[in-house]
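Posting this for the archive.
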Amino acid sequence: MTIRFMKLALAGLATAGLPLTAISAHQSGYGSHEKILTQPIANVENNYWFDYLTDIREAEHELKKDLARATDEEDRREAHEEYRAEIADANKDYRKEMRERGYRVGRVTVGD
């Protein structure tokens, strides 16, 4: 499968509104991870967005593989820690690239 085809397929999944994560660390009891974006920043589908989707899919794939090989609770915890770190890194890299190109990266915080 070519990279261009894979990026287009991932974009189709993202724009179809399908969830990007197959395994949620939050649901599994191993803590939560940063939110995974389901839409590109400023609705701009560029190479950085497709790279982001690829990074997320790779993180999910690695998590599944690591969990399948896990032999104890420590292995499962480490797999989820690595997954959280990869999600955080993908978010950071994508936001940085978009910010450098002049796109606004918004964040809404609701508090007391």
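The radius of gyration is 15 Å. The helical segments are 3-15, 25-28, 47-69, 73-100.
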